[in-house]
Amino acid sequence: MEEKNEKQPKTEAGWRARLKRNWSKGVEEAEYVSVLLPNGRKCQGGNQSWWLSIVKPEKAEGQNLSRYQKCRKDENYRIASLGCGVIAMTNLELYLEHRGIAGSERMPADDGKSCIKALPKEDYIKAVRSKWKGNYRIGRGYVNYVTGLYPWKMEAGLRECLIRNHCDRTRVQWASFAGKSKNRQKHLVWDTICDMLNADYPVVCSYHTFSPKEHALILYHELGLALRGIKAEGRYDKVSSHYMTIIGCYVSETGCRVLQMESWGNLYYVRYDEYAEKLSYFTNILRIYE
Predict the structure, then answer these.
(1) 201 in a structural domain
(2) Which of 2, 31, 112, 277 is deepest in the core (most CB within 10 A)?
(3) Residues 6+ apart with CB under 8 A from 156
(4) Successive 10-residue mean pLDDT values, the chain, 290 residues
(5) Which residue segment(s) compose the domain that 235 sits in?
(6) How many folded domains does the chain comprise?
Protein backbone atom coordinates (compact mmCIF):
# COMPACT_ATOMS: atom_id res chain seq x y z
CA MET A 1 0.00 0.00 0.00
CA GLU A 2 1.39 3.41 -1.02
CA GLU A 3 2.16 5.97 1.63
CA LYS A 4 0.01 9.08 1.39
CA ASN A 5 2.98 11.41 1.54
CA GLU A 6 4.93 9.67 -1.21
CA LYS A 7 6.08 12.05 -3.92
CA GLN A 8 4.63 11.64 -7.40
CA PRO A 9 7.14 10.31 -9.93
CA LYS A 10 8.62 12.90 -12.26
CA THR A 11 7.74 12.80 -15.94
CA GLU A 12 10.30 13.11 -18.71
CA ALA A 13 10.82 16.77 -19.54
CA GLY A 14 10.87 18.01 -23.10
CA TRP A 15 8.88 19.12 -26.12
CA ARG A 16 5.53 17.38 -26.55
CA ALA A 17 4.84 18.94 -29.95
CA ARG A 18 6.47 21.40 -32.34
CA LEU A 19 6.18 22.47 -35.95
CA LYS A 20 8.21 20.05 -38.07
CA ARG A 21 10.81 22.62 -39.04
CA ASN A 22 11.71 23.20 -35.35
CA TRP A 23 12.33 19.67 -34.03
CA SER A 24 16.05 19.89 -34.81
CA LYS A 25 16.43 23.41 -33.40
CA GLY A 26 17.17 24.68 -29.91
CA VAL A 27 14.61 26.39 -27.74
CA GLU A 28 15.48 29.94 -28.75
CA GLU A 29 16.25 29.00 -32.37
CA ALA A 30 12.67 28.09 -33.26
CA GLU A 31 11.31 29.73 -36.41
CA TYR A 32 7.92 30.37 -37.92
CA VAL A 33 7.45 32.82 -40.80
CA SER A 34 10.66 34.82 -41.22
CA VAL A 35 10.43 38.47 -42.23
CA LEU A 36 13.58 40.30 -43.30
CA LEU A 37 13.83 43.85 -41.96
CA PRO A 38 15.71 46.65 -43.78
CA ASN A 39 18.54 46.46 -41.19
CA GLY A 40 19.12 42.79 -42.07
CA ARG A 41 17.56 41.40 -38.90
CA LYS A 42 14.91 38.67 -39.13
CA CYS A 43 11.76 38.48 -37.06
CA GLN A 44 9.11 35.77 -36.76
CA GLY A 45 5.96 36.97 -38.47
CA GLY A 46 4.90 40.59 -38.59
CA ASN A 47 4.26 43.33 -36.09
CA GLN A 48 1.06 45.36 -36.35
CA SER A 49 2.88 48.44 -35.04
CA TRP A 50 4.63 48.67 -38.44
CA TRP A 51 1.43 50.20 -39.79
CA LEU A 52 1.73 53.21 -37.47
CA SER A 53 4.48 54.54 -39.72
CA ILE A 54 2.02 54.47 -42.65
CA VAL A 55 -0.75 56.33 -40.81
CA LYS A 56 -1.55 59.68 -42.39
CA PRO A 57 -0.93 62.39 -39.77
CA GLU A 58 -3.96 64.46 -40.74
CA LYS A 59 -6.23 61.45 -40.07
CA ALA A 60 -4.57 60.02 -36.97
CA GLU A 61 -3.82 63.23 -35.13
CA GLY A 62 -5.38 66.56 -34.40
CA GLN A 63 -8.81 67.61 -33.23
CA ASN A 64 -8.42 65.38 -30.16
CA LEU A 65 -9.68 62.31 -31.97
CA SER A 66 -10.37 59.27 -29.79
CA ARG A 67 -8.75 55.93 -30.58
CA TYR A 68 -12.09 54.70 -31.93
CA GLN A 69 -12.41 57.75 -34.21
CA LYS A 70 -8.87 57.20 -35.51
CA CYS A 71 -9.72 53.55 -36.25
CA ARG A 72 -12.79 54.62 -38.22
CA LYS A 73 -10.94 57.27 -40.21
CA ASP A 74 -7.67 55.53 -41.09
CA GLU A 75 -7.37 51.94 -42.31
CA ASN A 76 -3.68 51.75 -41.42
CA TYR A 77 -4.39 52.91 -37.89
CA ARG A 78 -7.07 50.20 -37.70
CA ILE A 79 -4.50 47.52 -38.66
CA ALA A 80 -1.99 48.95 -36.16
CA SER A 81 -4.57 48.89 -33.36
CA LEU A 82 -6.72 45.85 -34.18
CA GLY A 83 -4.75 43.84 -36.75
CA CYS A 84 -3.26 41.07 -34.60
CA GLY A 85 -5.82 38.57 -35.93
CA VAL A 86 -5.18 39.58 -39.55
CA ILE A 87 -1.44 39.13 -39.05
CA ALA A 88 -1.92 35.76 -37.30
CA MET A 89 -4.05 34.47 -40.19
CA THR A 90 -1.65 35.85 -42.83
CA ASN A 91 1.25 34.05 -41.13
CA LEU A 92 -0.77 30.83 -40.94
CA GLU A 93 -1.69 30.90 -44.65
CA LEU A 94 1.89 31.75 -45.67
CA TYR A 95 3.21 28.82 -43.62
CA LEU A 96 0.65 26.31 -44.88
CA GLU A 97 0.91 27.30 -48.52
CA HIS A 98 4.70 27.08 -48.42
CA ARG A 99 4.69 23.68 -46.77
CA GLY A 100 1.93 22.19 -48.91
CA ILE A 101 -1.30 22.00 -46.94
CA ALA A 102 -2.17 18.35 -47.59
CA GLY A 103 -0.19 16.29 -45.08
CA SER A 104 1.15 13.80 -47.62
CA GLU A 105 2.56 16.62 -49.70
CA ARG A 106 4.49 18.36 -46.95
CA MET A 107 8.25 18.42 -47.11
CA PRO A 108 10.11 16.47 -44.38
CA ALA A 109 11.66 18.63 -41.70
CA ASP A 110 15.24 17.70 -42.54
CA ASP A 111 15.14 17.98 -46.34
CA GLY A 112 17.04 21.26 -46.40
CA LYS A 113 14.05 23.12 -47.85
CA SER A 114 11.87 23.35 -44.77
CA CYS A 115 12.93 26.88 -43.86
CA ILE A 116 10.52 29.37 -45.36
CA LYS A 117 12.51 31.93 -47.30
CA ALA A 118 12.53 35.22 -45.43
CA LEU A 119 10.08 37.70 -46.93
CA PRO A 120 11.31 41.30 -47.23
CA LYS A 121 9.26 43.51 -44.94
CA GLU A 122 7.72 45.36 -47.91
CA ASP A 123 6.48 42.09 -49.45
CA TYR A 124 5.13 40.92 -46.10
CA ILE A 125 3.16 44.15 -45.69
CA LYS A 126 1.70 43.63 -49.16
CA ALA A 127 0.66 40.07 -48.18
CA VAL A 128 -1.09 41.33 -45.04
CA ARG A 129 -2.81 44.08 -46.98
CA SER A 130 -4.04 41.52 -49.53
CA LYS A 131 -5.57 39.37 -46.76
CA TRP A 132 -7.05 42.48 -45.15
CA LYS A 133 -8.70 43.50 -48.41
CA GLY A 134 -10.02 39.94 -48.83
CA ASN A 135 -11.31 37.56 -46.17
CA TYR A 136 -9.84 39.14 -43.05
CA ARG A 137 -11.10 42.70 -43.21
CA ILE A 138 -12.02 44.42 -39.94
CA GLY A 139 -15.00 46.75 -40.25
CA ARG A 140 -15.34 50.30 -38.99
CA GLY A 141 -18.12 49.60 -36.47
CA TYR A 142 -17.80 49.79 -32.70
CA VAL A 143 -18.18 46.01 -32.25
CA ASN A 144 -15.24 45.51 -34.61
CA TYR A 145 -13.31 48.08 -32.59
CA VAL A 146 -13.89 46.05 -29.41
CA THR A 147 -13.33 42.56 -30.83
CA GLY A 148 -10.95 42.96 -33.78
CA LEU A 149 -11.17 40.20 -36.38
CA TYR A 150 -14.25 38.02 -35.88
CA PRO A 151 -13.52 34.29 -35.32
CA TRP A 152 -16.09 33.27 -37.97
CA LYS A 153 -14.20 35.36 -40.52
CA MET A 154 -11.07 33.42 -39.59
CA GLU A 155 -12.94 30.14 -40.11
CA ALA A 156 -14.37 31.21 -43.48
CA GLY A 157 -11.10 32.67 -44.74
CA LEU A 158 -9.05 29.60 -43.86
CA ARG A 159 -11.67 27.27 -45.36
CA GLU A 160 -11.34 29.17 -48.62
CA CYS A 161 -7.55 28.83 -48.43
CA LEU A 162 -7.86 25.08 -47.86
CA ILE A 163 -10.31 24.64 -50.76
CA ARG A 164 -8.04 26.70 -52.99
CA ASN A 165 -5.25 24.24 -52.15
CA HIS A 166 -7.44 21.16 -52.79
CA CYS A 167 -7.94 20.26 -49.11
CA ASP A 168 -11.74 20.07 -49.14
CA ARG A 169 -11.85 17.45 -46.38
CA THR A 170 -9.82 19.47 -43.87
CA ARG A 171 -12.11 21.15 -41.36
CA VAL A 172 -11.77 24.41 -39.44
CA GLN A 173 -13.57 25.39 -36.25
CA TRP A 174 -13.15 28.08 -33.63
CA ALA A 175 -13.67 27.11 -29.97
CA SER A 176 -14.61 23.50 -30.74
CA PHE A 177 -15.07 22.54 -27.08
CA ALA A 178 -16.67 25.73 -25.72
CA GLY A 179 -19.80 23.90 -24.52
CA LYS A 180 -17.95 21.47 -22.24
CA SER A 181 -16.91 21.87 -18.61
CA LYS A 182 -13.83 24.00 -17.88
CA ASN A 183 -11.70 21.03 -16.77
CA ARG A 184 -12.71 19.01 -19.82
CA GLN A 185 -11.95 21.96 -22.08
CA LYS A 186 -8.48 22.32 -20.58
CA HIS A 187 -7.62 18.70 -21.43
CA LEU A 188 -9.18 18.78 -24.90
CA VAL A 189 -7.60 22.09 -25.92
CA TRP A 190 -4.13 20.94 -24.79
CA ASP A 191 -4.47 17.64 -26.64
CA THR A 192 -5.74 19.45 -29.74
CA ILE A 193 -2.81 21.88 -29.71
CA CYS A 194 -0.37 18.95 -29.50
CA ASP A 195 -2.18 17.05 -32.27
CA MET A 196 -2.20 20.07 -34.58
CA LEU A 197 1.48 20.85 -34.08
CA ASN A 198 2.43 17.21 -34.64
CA ALA A 199 0.44 17.41 -37.89
CA ASP A 200 2.44 20.58 -38.73
CA TYR A 201 -0.45 23.01 -38.28
CA PRO A 202 0.38 26.24 -36.36
CA VAL A 203 -2.32 27.06 -33.80
CA VAL A 204 -3.86 30.52 -33.95
CA CYS A 205 -5.24 31.40 -30.53
CA SER A 206 -6.71 34.32 -28.64
CA TYR A 207 -6.60 35.54 -25.09
CA HIS A 208 -9.19 37.92 -23.67
CA THR A 209 -10.05 39.07 -20.19
CA PHE A 210 -12.54 41.67 -19.03
CA SER A 211 -10.23 42.43 -16.07
CA PRO A 212 -6.89 43.38 -17.69
CA LYS A 213 -5.29 44.69 -14.50
CA GLU A 214 -5.94 41.52 -12.50
CA HIS A 215 -5.87 38.82 -15.20
CA ALA A 216 -3.49 39.90 -17.97
CA LEU A 217 -1.63 36.97 -19.49
CA ILE A 218 2.14 36.91 -18.89
CA LEU A 219 4.31 36.38 -21.98
CA TYR A 220 7.74 35.29 -20.72
CA HIS A 221 10.77 36.00 -22.90
CA GLU A 222 12.51 32.73 -21.95
CA LEU A 223 11.36 29.16 -21.42
CA GLY A 224 13.19 28.86 -18.10
CA LEU A 225 11.41 31.92 -16.69
CA ALA A 226 8.03 30.53 -17.76
CA LEU A 227 8.73 27.14 -16.18
CA ARG A 228 9.57 28.81 -12.87
CA GLY A 229 6.95 31.55 -13.18
CA ILE A 230 9.57 34.27 -12.61
CA LYS A 231 8.51 37.74 -13.77
CA ALA A 232 11.96 39.28 -14.11
CA GLU A 233 11.97 42.99 -14.90
CA GLY A 234 12.16 43.67 -18.62
CA ARG A 235 11.90 39.97 -19.49
CA TYR A 236 8.16 39.55 -19.87
CA ASP A 237 5.19 41.28 -21.48
CA LYS A 238 1.45 41.26 -20.75
CA VAL A 239 -1.64 40.94 -22.95
CA SER A 240 -5.31 41.25 -22.09
CA SER A 241 -6.90 40.99 -25.56
CA HIS A 242 -4.76 39.60 -28.34
CA TYR A 243 -4.43 37.00 -31.12
CA MET A 244 -1.19 34.96 -31.19
CA THR A 245 0.16 31.74 -32.73
CA ILE A 246 1.31 28.63 -30.86
CA ILE A 247 4.29 26.86 -32.46
CA GLY A 248 5.41 24.52 -29.66
CA CYS A 249 4.40 22.77 -26.39
CA TYR A 250 6.81 21.92 -23.58
CA VAL A 251 6.29 19.90 -20.39
CA SER A 252 8.68 19.99 -17.41
CA GLU A 253 9.62 17.07 -15.15
CA THR A 254 7.10 18.32 -12.61
CA GLY A 255 4.31 18.54 -15.20
CA CYS A 256 4.36 22.30 -15.85
CA ARG A 257 3.02 22.85 -19.38
CA VAL A 258 4.31 25.77 -21.44
CA LEU A 259 3.21 27.08 -24.84
CA GLN A 260 5.77 28.58 -27.20
CA MET A 261 4.07 31.52 -28.91
CA GLU A 262 4.80 33.90 -31.78
CA SER A 263 3.57 37.48 -31.54
CA TRP A 264 4.78 40.93 -32.65
CA GLY A 265 7.58 39.20 -34.56
CA ASN A 266 9.05 37.62 -31.40
CA LEU A 267 8.94 34.31 -29.51
CA TYR A 268 7.29 34.12 -26.09
CA TYR A 269 6.47 31.42 -23.54
CA VAL A 270 3.13 31.10 -21.73
CA ARG A 271 2.22 28.82 -18.83
CA TYR A 272 -0.64 26.75 -20.20
CA ASP A 273 -2.61 26.59 -16.95
CA GLU A 274 -2.63 30.40 -16.73
CA TYR A 275 -3.89 30.63 -20.31
CA ALA A 276 -6.46 27.84 -19.89
CA GLU A 277 -7.91 29.41 -16.74
CA LYS A 278 -9.66 31.94 -18.99
CA LEU A 279 -10.91 29.49 -21.64
CA SER A 280 -14.15 30.75 -23.19
CA TYR A 281 -15.38 31.63 -26.66
CA PHE A 282 -13.12 34.69 -26.47
CA THR A 283 -10.05 32.81 -25.18
CA ASN A 284 -9.65 29.83 -27.47
CA ILE A 285 -7.98 28.26 -30.51
CA LEU A 286 -8.66 27.84 -34.22
CA ARG A 287 -8.82 24.08 -34.67
CA ILE A 288 -7.72 22.45 -37.96
CA TYR A 289 -8.51 18.76 -38.32
CA GLU A 290 -9.48 16.02 -40.74
Answers:
(1) yes
(2) 31
(3) 135
(4) 42 86 86 92 92 72 76 89 95 89 44 63 94 90 86 96 89 95 96 96 95 93 96 95 96 96 96 97 95
(5) 14-289
(6) 1
